[in-house]
Amino acid sequence: MTVRTLVPSLALLVSLPAAGSAVELLSGDISVDLSVRIQSRLEVISASDATGEDYDIWDGPVAAGEEAHNVNLMFRRARAWISGSYKDNTKFNLTFAADNTGARGQGLNDDQWEMLYGWVSHTMQTEAADHTLVFGKFVPAFTPTLYNSSGSLLFPTRRLSTTLSTPLSTMALEYRLGSEYVDAYAGVIEADEIGGDDGGDYWFYLRGETAFLPEYKAPKRTESFLGAEGMDWLVGAAVATRIDGDDEDEEITQFGLDGLFHRDALTASFDFIYRTADTGPDTDVTSMVIEAQGGYCFPLENDLLLEPALRLALVDQNDDDDDETTPYSRDGGASGMYITAGVNCYFDGHHHKLQAALTSFTPEDGDADAVIFRLQHQLSF
């Protein structure tokens, strides 16, 4: 199937009826929501390795005499989840995913349904604050772009700050304090050993965020406020350290700053993460990500919304190495400069939208450049 036939087949999905809210089941003290999210994505790319030869971002180096594949069509996310509450203070979630179904790529074995998240939380309320304990498989609070819902992203791909994130979807225990002025988080995450074996390592993290003035505190963290009237913001800081349970000499420590701002049609955010890793004798590595993005939402006829967006990101995987030449891979993460321009068309807010984005990657050194076009349709209900 050619690109010319793939694009119309994907675009036809916009004719589907707008998605409504999740199915809600009530029984006494229990409330249950059943929800589904489907993201179909087309990727078209032109990429080179450090020597300027053709490169396949999904399958790696191209063998002599062969050509790089430049099209990938997939269900980037296919998810169904059960969430709800017991009485007023206990919440739960079970999320099942078959992400990357139909995608080409080395190591992509995610096209079978599996439990992605599963957690339970309980909140104790006082006059001054809410105190919440969360246990299970969930997204820890260190990296905001990860606990932004994947359904409300400004671009088809997450921000590059995920390059230096703590683990996603692993067993964790987290304490959350919610107050009028400050929200705070503290947690521990189970992780594979730095050397690659299962278990044995742990992340410990702390995070705080505030709007300084309660009347401007964003009610929900999202990358696009869909042109809603009003002004909101959040500023956050976090620190995390990873300790090897078998070898105290192996350790990773990282620090993060981030911000979110919304005023009427304008939405903007920034991220900064700095990491130092000591994984053995003479192997100290310093890494960094700096990123900013924004969008402006225009109302159209028939309740449609159009939102142009721009993202700039700088990734440095090793501050002591000025000759990093790693080529672009999948959603990015190699050292270099990333510039992404895109536009979103909302048919029913984040429930039903079409996103298009063009990313240009320039490496720190060498000729491993890349240009990636992504077209993604999302339906949530």
Your description of this structure?
By secondary structure, this protein is mostly beta strands. The protein is built from two helices and 20 strands. The chain has helices at residues 3-11, 144-147; strands spanning 23-27, 30-47, 55-56, 60-61, 71-86, 90-97, 114-125, 130-138, 170-178, 182-192, 200-210, 231-244, 251-263, 266-278, 284-296, 298-299, 305-316, 336-346, 352-363, 370-380. The strands form two sheets. Strands 2-5-6-7-8-9-10-11-12-13-14-15-17-18-19-20 form a 16-stranded antiparallel β-barrel. Strand 14 and strand 15 form a beta hairpin. The chain is globular. Residues 1-21 have low confidence and may be disordered.
SSE arrangement:
Blueprint: H1 3-11, E1 23-27, E2 30-47, E3 55-56, E4 60-61, E5 71-86, E6 90-97, E7 114-125, E8 130-138, H2 144-147, E9 170-178, E10 182-192, E11 200-210, E12 231-244, E13 251-263, E14 266-278, E15 284-296, E16 298-299, E17 305-316, E18 336-346, E19 352-363, E20 370-380
Antiparallel strand pairs: 1-2, 2-5, 2-20, 3-4, 5-6, 6-7, 7-8, 8-9, 9-10, 10-11, 11-12, 12-13, 13-14, 14-15, 15-17, 16-17, 17-18, 18-19, 19-20
Summary tags:
381 residues; mainly beta; 16-stranded antiparallel barrel; two-stranded antiparallel ribbon; 2 helices; 20 strands; 54% strand; globular
